[in-house]
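Researcher: We plan to redesign the surface later, but first we want a full-length starting point. Tokens attached.
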């Protein structure tokens, strides 16, 4: 059996804006193998969260999804809502970008994890679920787990709350963890601890991770493969080493050049100009209006991913022409 956990082929999402359907994710073809980490890296508004939400089918009802999305060989786009509900939080788990909203302020964090376990594992007793929840708290590095389980979300520090959210996302031992900016709100030390925790869990359980970030430092730390997303398309895709050390796309090069030279935070700072919004998208390459190398074709036609090596692709008209 193939070890491909996720595979999308030309996956597209369009949102209803006034009366028009406006594309936010355009023909994205990516795949993720068992036990590996794919990081989707890109500036704000590039479509990263929308792509992940399309996989879990948690987009607004009037969003149009096109193309194909497979999870462990099953067609996600053919599943009905009941089948999707069974998958969510179970074989596929997601840490949302606004993850604090994943916790209900009215309930103790331990009870929330216990209830999530019980919702998916009907045969597990409350006592067993409590035991499992405590073990999860230990696993994610929450000290004094028994006491912490009895606290309300607002009583925990940001780092501890995020760990509780992660514990909840792991409670059904997912095959696939979708993590949307899981460490953005945290300081660097806690961020490192949580990323190390992901790697540890992955080594132990063979979990696959798809993570979204706009932080190159985070991507470099955890990714096996990186997909650079901009204006709803994948600009560059390949092994972490090739994408970060031998970038073939002017956009990736601009992102890397924009990194602050000192400090290890790795935040993206300004590339000249603003990323487009879905209603202000250039008609050709989404980067064409900010790209120093753009020519006429870049302004009129969208580039497609072409191979650089067997494990590296770029979507750039300049690259395509160089190859001719
Ligand atoms: N429900 C919606 N209706 C209309 N447009 C939307 C909707 N959700 C997202 N968009 C638009 O789709 C584009 C992609 O949004 P998305 O949230 O996927 O970006 P992102 O890469 O996750 O950005 P960020 O880094 O800021 O989280 C943006 O232009 C956004 O404004
Ligand atoms: Mg997002």
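Model: Full-length starting sequence:
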């Amino acid at each position: 059996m193939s070890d491909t956990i996720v595979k999308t082929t030309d996956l597209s999402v369009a949102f209803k804006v006034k009366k028009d359907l406006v594309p936010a994710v355009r023909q994205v073809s990516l795949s993720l193998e068992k036990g590996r980490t794919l990081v989707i890296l890109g500036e704000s508004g590039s479509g990263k969260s929308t792509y992940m939400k399309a996989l879990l089918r948690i987009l607004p009802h009037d969003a149009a999804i096109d193309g194909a999305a497979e999870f462990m060989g099953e067609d996600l786009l053919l599943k009905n809502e009941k089948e999707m509900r069974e998958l969510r939080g179970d074989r596929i788990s997601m840490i949302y970008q606004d993850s604090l909203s994943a916790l209900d302020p009215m309930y103790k964090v331990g009870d929330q994890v216990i209830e999530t376990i019980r919702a998916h594992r009907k045969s597990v007793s409350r006592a067993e679920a409590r035991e499992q929840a405590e073990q999860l708290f230990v696993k994610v590095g929450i000290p004094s787990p028994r006491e912490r389980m009895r606290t309300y979300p607002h009583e925990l520090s940001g780092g501890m709350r995020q760990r509780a959210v992660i514990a909840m996302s792991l409670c059904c031992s997912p095959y696939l963890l979708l993590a949307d900016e899981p460490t953005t709100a945290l300081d660097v030390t806690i961020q490192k601890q949580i990323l190390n925790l992901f790697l540890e869990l992955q080594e132990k359980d063979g979990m696959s991770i798809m993570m979204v970030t706009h932080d190159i430092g985070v991507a470099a730390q955890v990714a096996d493969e990186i997909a650079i997303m901009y204006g709803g398309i994948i600009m560059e895709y390949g092994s972490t080493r090739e994408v970060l050390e031998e970038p073939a796309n002017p956009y990736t090069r601009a992102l890397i050049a924009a990194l602050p030279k000192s400090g290890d935070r790795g935040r993206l700072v300004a590339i000249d100009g603003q990323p487009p919004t879905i209603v202000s998208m250039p008609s050709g390459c989404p980067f064409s209006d900010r790209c120093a190398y753009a020519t006429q074709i870049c302004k009129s036609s969208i580039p497609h991913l072409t191979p650089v090596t067997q494990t590296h692709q770029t979507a750039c008209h300049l690259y395509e022409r160089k190859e001719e």
